[in-house]
Design goal:
Elements (H helix, E strand, L loop, with lengths): L1 E6 L5 H10 L3 E7 L3 H4 L8 E3 L2 H5 L6 E4 L6 H10 L3 E4 L7 H13 L4 E3 L7 H11 L6 E9 L4 H5 L12 H5 L2 H11 L2 E9 L10 E8 L4 E7 L8 E8 L2 E6 L5 E7 L4 H13 L6 H15 L7 H20 L3 E2 L5
Parallel strand pairs: 1-2, 1-4, 2-3, 4-5, 5-6, 7-10
Antiparallel strand pairs: 7-11, 8-9, 8-14, 9-10, 11-12, 12-13
Helix pairs in contact: 1-11, 4-5, 5-12, 6-9, 9-12
């Protein structure tokens, strides 16, 4: 049995609890938060509650620590967990800068523990179909790709906690809301060579950006656009991922990117394309992404293999976000190799 301890009992912790409970061979052993009131709903028979992380890290019944705190705390907590010999599951973004990410990766390597970063959108049925077609070479030469997040996070969302919307603890729309889409672009199209970006804080009363538009050039030569905003009225409008190639066009969309909107390939008949769309529509959400992450980590801990989504994967998405932020701040394109 792989036993989990959760640090940070806010909103996202519930997804981790549900995922652990649903995973064969996993169990929730402990929770930790500085606020006892947040711990109370999770403490049941066999589940211990801690207000001091050091005490939970000394708990021999905890094998893996799931970090569900505000993003600015991820790095410190991950390093402490690794030094205590605990494997690490860390929410997105894994850190707020590349130095923090490197410290996390190094600490896990030095202490012989595994780390996975929560990028659950890879496990959506539509996205997995898209990945399969990419691996089959069905697009031919890729011309360009678009990732769009047109969502609403109203002022009340930011006002409910003082860390929200800050650069140090939240990171803005690109780091917080769109980081999954950056991960998907990298997973599907490979490394990015250079970015140019504009960012603004147009509507929300926050420190970080609420709107970001970036243009990418991939190492393959393909181009890309990332549009991300939390200012769309009155609710979430669209999350989409589109890839345009020599022999194929695919668009995944909806309020969240769970539905295939366009599926055209030179090697598929209309009937075959419609069949794929219909198959995804029967179960567009599939197995919850957090459950997929926990199932994978549980197996990785049992067998000693690397998780499907590694710390290095999380770092690549973070690196792209950092490059976009710097390009916007500098007012000129930024090459990603300049960050290394």
């Amino acid at each position: 049995m792989v036993r989990y301890g959760i640090v940070g009992c806010g909103h996202i912790a519930k997804k981790h609890v549900d995922a652990i409970v649903a995973t064969e061979g996993a169990e929730l052993a402990a929770v930790c938060d500085t606020d006892p009131a947040r711990i109370a709903p999770f403490v049941k028979e066999g589940i211990r509650g801690y207000t001091d992380l050091e005490q939970m890290l000394k708990d021999g019944a905890v094998d893996v620590v799931s970090i569900c705190t505000p993003s600015g705390l991820h790095a410190e907590l991950a390093v402490r967990a690794a030094k205590a010999g605990k494997h690490v599951v860390v929410e997105k973004p894994m850190a707020m800068n590349l130095d923090e990410a490197d410290r996390m990766i190094a600490a896990c390597e030095k202490n012989g523990v595994l780390m996975t970063v929560v990028h659950p959108n890879r496990f959506r049925p539509a996205v997995m179909e898209l990945k399969r077609r990419m691996e089959e070479g069905a697009f031919g030469t890729i011309g360009h790709a678009n990732a769009t997040v047109r969502w609403n996070r109203n002022q009340a969302y930011y006002d409910q906690a003082p860390w929200r919307g800050t650069r140090a603890m939240d990171g803005g729309v690109l780091m917080n809301q769109a980081i999954h889409n950056l991960d998907l672009l990298l997973w599907l199209l490979g490394e990015v060579e250079e970015v140019a970006s504009y960012q603004a804080t147009r509507i929300r009363r926050i420190e970080a950006e609420d709107t970001s538009v970036s243009v990418l050039r991939f190492k393959s030569g393909a181009l890309g656009v990332i549009e991300a905003a939390v200012t769309v009225y009155p609710r979430n409008l669209e999350e989409s991922l589109a890839i345009f190639g020599e022999k194929g066009t695919a668009v995944i969309g909806g309020p969240t990117a769970n539905w295939i909107k366009t599926w055209r390939f030179a090697d598929l008949t209309e009937e075959e394309s419609r069949a794929t769309i219909a198959r995804v529509e029967k179960d567009p959400y599939g197995v919850p992404g957090h459950r997929c992450i926990i199932e994978d980590m549980t197996e990785a801990v049992r067998t000693g293999r690397r998780p499907k989504i590694t710390g290095e994967d999380g770092r690549r998405a973070l690196e792209l976000a950092v490059a976009c932020n710097r390009a916007a701040a500098f007012g000129r394109p930024v090459r990603l190799d300049s960050l290394r």
